[in-house]
């Protein structure tokens, strides 16, 4: 069956701005007119001010009304003329007080100001004229010492003023109380409001965040009081589409005279027209119980010794304020659900006849109404079991709509983890703790929220699901407590090896409550997990530290929950330990961020990918940047750049072999300019997660580097690979033919299936606008054999790019270019560096690609010597600096080159690798003032001729201060002069005169 959705009001999550407009009128200033004794009596018993403040605090309302007290009519009228009040309360014990006259004068000052009489006894108001109510006095209450009355009368006044707008804007529910006796409505209203407040507070405990808590409070039902039949009918007719319930006395005025059966007539009319609205008949005449059965309506005797309890039971049982009680048609209870999570979990096991029984009596609808889930309640109310082909179809309709509501209500919201209410398919982003989410966590949460607000991104890319992986963040305060509790602060000092730090952290204890939360989390999560760092400065625009801290990947598939929990605890401790690793300490010192101030959040995140035999990996991992430091062909820097790789993202972010292209021009690929170039530059290995349980503390031990040929029969390779036809010396864009397979990503880049390139262009523009600066996105893509299934695009990270602002103009003259020893048209930064006194370079004739690890070790030793001598140096060498692939560049880490003032990446025949701008190493060194220059010695890239040069003849003519197997170290008599023009990315280096 297809239920038309358009007839219903839009879903809850999309109406948050509407809900903010609810309860627009709030009573903030109250004028109390009473004798000094009455004011003292109210305050002495703690009944007025303190009760108001306490009740507002209990509902998380931050601004309780302020009460100003006066003890004379003259003073009251004078104050009303001077100050704005929202309500006037009068206790009729003042000497020479004429309530009718006073009420009239107050209305003359402010016509719509609620004027309410509070009397200790009903006898004191008998003398009032019959027309006083409505003309001069808005209501009369009898105060018998019940302090709850003050909250009830304030809220009731607000409800009468807000009900029109709130029902129109927010579909808010309305409860009508019909009672003419001030004694009784002064008794019933506090009970009703207390039930609503209690229900609201219960919902606040499971609300996802503070925003939804505010919406929950504002969406509460409105309570309207009618004193006669005509008022009741008027309210019913006006708000019949919004009725939650009608509670009516039996005997009250009708047509100007007391009618002993007015309530029966009223409820009978409502039942005939609105059959499933809950009705309650109250009466002090017990014989009316039988008459209530003819309506039918629930009956409560006013003379009952358990009247308050009876009212509570009515709200719990008939209005759905309690558990949802599953019954059979004979009313035999079979199960209960406390909340939506439990309701959805138990529905599949409930007998068919029970589901039909509840659906046909609007029990599901009423229960949802009590939880302010108005739209879904209305949707359920519009259908009956007869609308479906079978009970299972009805069950699925209810279940799917409940799950959809929970998902949409969660969309874009970072909620607090609750071990009793956690469902990873609903609460996709949760946090544990009260501190910061850390740098990565902030970026993810920011995107998570933006995606929910900007649905045009999804609408523009209908064949792709844009999402972030399901995420849990353990906030920074837990790291701080963990370090303090286990006395680990000493590891912040230099001198400890990484292994010593790891051992210290692994032997420390996490809080017991956190372990219980992690156990509850893992009990619901059965997919592979990445345990990642989220340092408080990580990915910040002023000090990014991408890739500096550790990530651990867990298969999370062991049959024993306790084993999986042990794996998780160890991974978290090791991520914490990476804060005090040698690399992190050196990086922090260089970035003017002392290690002991460092705090760490931990991201536990679903690994994007799919199972392929004994392995798990995504079809594509990549990095995209909105600014391209190394544009090619007709591509401009602002067109952006992206890197694709098969498998997990380690290939790209650690500088491995990947495919570089501009998302705006995906068919322009310089590395694929010929068949020979394709065969030379294509990715031939990738990383996948091994699905086994033999875990180790090493961060990448669970990953396996596989060849593309090994995965030849797996769907991602079949989809993304082309075939090299040897006899034709040609690449054909299909996997399904004989010949070696070559990863070209042609299906996506050439045939736009799916349109990932266009999506990246849109996301980069969107991200740059949102951050106010160029951004870098890490992502993964899942492709599926089922053509009807959408492609999944996962945001893994988004961060600002480290681009120096061009705060001053740097001019590079032609004379400097002609007489310099180095020129580049691909330099990062802007400014002048005249502090470098040394040059360290890899000797071209001695370089061997297989020796890059040894070269890195030699650089590390020389770097330490120069740091001790406080000599800044220029580092020069071939390929991608910091690459994890030793054949694409020299695999240095930050600690190995921390004394360098600038680095030159040579593109030549030794290693003809693409620029390294997708790597974490590249991302981190630029904001620390280490300029990165690429010199293209190949002399051409596609159709663009390179004017870059490095004067080898001059540099080799200089005397060496020292030499190693692969390095030569020059000490200059004077510092060299390096100038970088950030506007055109040019760099020139000369010797100072």
Automatic annotation (TrEMBL):
Tell me the domain of life. Bacteria
Annotated Pyruvate phosphate dikinase AMP/ATP-binding domain residues: 436-812
Name of a matching Pfam family? PPDK_N
GO terms for MF: ATP binding; kinase activity
Entries under InterPro entries matching the protein: ATP_grasp_subdomain_1 (IPR013815), CheY-like_superfamily (IPR011006), PPDK_AMP/ATP-bd (IPR002192)
SUPFAM superfamilies per the UniProt record, alphabetical: CheY-like, Glutathione synthetase ATP-binding domain-like
Arranged from A to Z, the UniProt key words for this protein are:
Kinase, Pyruvate, Transferase
The protein in question is named: Predicted pyruvate phosphate dikinase, PEP/pyruvate-binding
Species annotation: Desulfobacula toluolica (strain DSM 7467 / Tol2)
Q: What is the lineage of its organism?
A: Bacteria, Pseudomonadati, Thermodesulfobacteriota, Desulfobacteria, Desulfobacterales
